[in-house]
Design a protein that fits this description.
The complex is a heterodimer of chains A (about 375) and B (about 55). Helix content of chain A is about 25%, strand content about 30%. Chain A is α/β, with parallel strands linked by helices and about 375 residues long. In chain A, the strands form 7 sheets. Chain A has a 5-stranded parallel beta sheet. In chain A, strands 9-16-10-11-12 form a 5-stranded parallel beta sheet, with helices on one face. In chain A, strands 21-22-25-24-23 form a 5-stranded antiparallel beta sheet. In chain A, helix 1 packs parallel to helix 8. Classes of the chains: A alpha/beta (about 375), B mainly beta (about 55). Chain B: Involved in the hydrocarbon hydroxylating system, which transfers electrons from NADH to rubredoxin reductase and then through rubredoxin to alkane 1 monooxygenase.
Chain lengths: ~375, ~55
């Protein structure tokens, strides 16, 4: 009697899950694949959540296909609104509550979650995070009839949202406990170019303090900042950071650090369990961007199809979607010296080592046009 | 001449302008862009592009 081979199970149907399976199907049309997702399985691109107001796109318009369409297109089974609650690596089984589901290979592609905030004042149900299509849908519904938005955080998502929501006609204030926008990503001159551009659109920045307390009053929400100032607003978006989801991996005994630790073949510390995308820490690197995720999906698809392949990370420049002052940055991995030229909001900042080799760059405004030429000079993250 | 947009990140390929930095001369039709072309902004493949109205 022949035993039916257990499927490849992929947990998560975000960009990582769907792109992996798409690449896998190019290598292997037959092996059964089961995808399990805690949401409704709609296929959408998370970066597009940052430009939805500028482009006038509702959540439904951002969805490129529902779970049924994706299952048919990829020849897979998709279990939606289903949360995996445990993993038994030794037995090659995941649990959905009490129900065991066997796998031949398991891929963790469940992404990252917003850093949680604890804010005093009892109005925390008015603080939104936007980490997936459902969040985006809820947030848009909640915005109905409102005008003023407070964004907590001036990092990549905070700045992208500030630009997008201003384009959408909202009055935006940003509060962040940093001395500049895009801290850890941009040198100061480039950051101030972005800040000036956004201020020109009408965004107001409160850099230095953080939001300590939010209370509901008849004038709307009142946010008390740590520097004693108060801001009146209608709704609050928290964009203070993302971190890889680790809980289930820890429970399963996998090694984790900032992310789920995987080697260059994306294998975790257990055989036949892999991690991909925003939840993975690949050879010590956590990069919450699409480009590394795609490189990982291509390599892992081959590995799953029986051709062990290490992921190659070339240079990984990051586009920041602040159209008022476009930004592209490739943060230097090694220490070097910055050489910065600027004219208004156009900044070209190049980081070089002692021998003059390019280590990284930050470009804003019209200078972003130089990126493709500079990319060819950048060192690979690992090859 | 048409434009094609990456559905993942929004990068636009304009056939009229091509993308000389990626070796695509101005006027290169999308159909003639190699199948292994990847989006210079986010790294997805050619099948993740859709035609956009101008």
């Amino acid at each position: 009697m022949s035993q039916v081979k257990a499927p490849v199970i992929v947990i998560g149907t975000g960009l990582a899950g769907y792109n992996l399976v798409k690449e896998f199907r190019k290598q292997d049309a037959e092996t059964p694949v089961l995808m399990i997702t805690a949401d409704d399985g709609r296929n959408y691109s998370k970066p597009m959540l940052s430009t939805g107001f500028t482009k006038g796109k509702s959540a439904n318009e951002l969805a490129m296909g529902d779970a049924g369409k994706m299952a048919e297109q990829l020849n897979v089974t998709i279990r939606t609104n289903t949360r995996v609650t445990g993993i038994d690596a030794a037995r090659h089984v995941v649990f959905v509550g009490e129900e065991p589901v066997g796998y031949s290979k398991l891929v963790l592609a469940w992404g990252a979650e917003p850093v949680a905030v604890r804010i005093e004042g009892g109005a925390s149900e008015n603080i939104f995070t936007i980490n997936d299509l459902q969040d985006y849908s809820n947030f848009r519904a909640e915005l109905e009839g409102k005008k003023r938005i407070l964004i907590m955080g001036a990092g990549l998502i905070g700045c992208e949202y500030a630009n997008d929501l201003t384009n959408g006609g909202y009055k935006v204030e940003v509060v962040a406990p940093s001395s500049q926008v895009l801290p850890n990503l941009l040198p100061e001159q480039a950051a101030s170019a972005v800040q000036h551009g956004l201020e020109g659109l009408g965004v107001k920045f409160n850099l230095g303090p953080f939001v300590r307390r939010v209370t509901q009053t008849e004038r709307g929400l009142v946010a008390d900042l740590s520097n004693g100032e108060q801001i009146e607003t209608d709704i609050i978006v928290s964009a203070i950071g993302l971190r890889p989801r680790l809980d289930l991996a820890v429970k399963a005994g996998l090694q984790v650090n900032q992310g789920i630790c995987v080697d260059r073949s994306l294998q975790t510390t257990e055989a036949d369990i892999y991690a991909l995308g925003d939840c993975a820490e690949v050879d010590g690197k956590v990069l919450l961007y699409v480009m590394p995720l795609m490189a990982g999906a291509r390599a892992l698809a081959k590995t799953l199809a029986g051709q062990p392949t290490d992921v190659i990370y070339g240079a990984m420049p990051v586009m920041i979607k602040t159209p008022v002052v476009p930004v592209v940055v490739s943060p230097p991995v090694l220490q070097g010296v910055w050489d910065i030229e600027s004219s208004g909001v156009n900044v070209k900042a190049l980081c070089r080592d002692d021998a003059g080799a390019l280590l990284g760059y930050a470009l804003t405004g019209t200078c972003v046009a130089d990126k493709l030429a500079l990319n060819k000079e950048l060192p690979a993250i690992f090859k | 001449m048409k434009k094609w947009e990456c559905v993942v990140c929004g990068w636009v390929y304009d056939e009229e302008e091509g993308c000389p930095e990626e070796g695509l001369a101005p006027g290169t039709a999308w159909a003639d862009v190699p199948d292994d072309f990847i989006c210079p902004d986010c790294g997805v493949g050619k099948d993740d592009f859709e035609m956009v109205e101008i």
